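user: Here is a favour to ask of a fellow structure person. I have my own habits and do not want them to colour yours. Could you put it straight underneath, so I can go through it closely?

assistant:
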Amino acid sequence: MATRVLIRQTLDAIAAELGDDYDEDDDNGLVADAIMTSAHLIEIESWEEIPDGYELAYEEDKQVYQAYLESKERG
């Protein structure tokens, strides 16, 4: 069963993309803009399908994903 989740780029991926323009304090607003424009609603069959450099945007999805990882560790 497919699940829809909202993903966005991680801060590390944004920093790499912005290079010298990256400002940790985001005084220029580039990080906030990059976070908003990098958001995508995707449909996944498995939590393994989250692309590298992206993270789940919603806390509820993060909690479900964490529970998935914990159950995977237990076997």
